[in-house]
Amino acid sequence: MDYEDLGFHYWDVFPKKIKVTRSWWSLSVPLSIRGMPRGELQYETVDSSIAWVDWEGRVRLGWRTGATIIMVYDSPARDSVRYVEVEVVEEYGGGYGEPS
What does the longest C-alpha to C-alpha distance in the chain come to? Predict the structure, then answer.
């Protein structure tokens, strides 16, 4: 007997939180899917100027600071969702953008 026979369906996305310092160079963080999603994954970002996800499941970090949420759905029905928190912070110290 396996989990499908019991009606149990597990899948998840990692990392759950991404926090990086803003950079002028392109930054990306790959998402890892565990378990068995029901179908093709779909990604949606609340604020795509901070972060977005490409077709390969890599989070691309924008040049804007702030926080956003990425929703990962495991089917077009969008009835099963996982979340990734993203925060891009400003670098201070070392002569880069120190507040006056």
Answer: 65
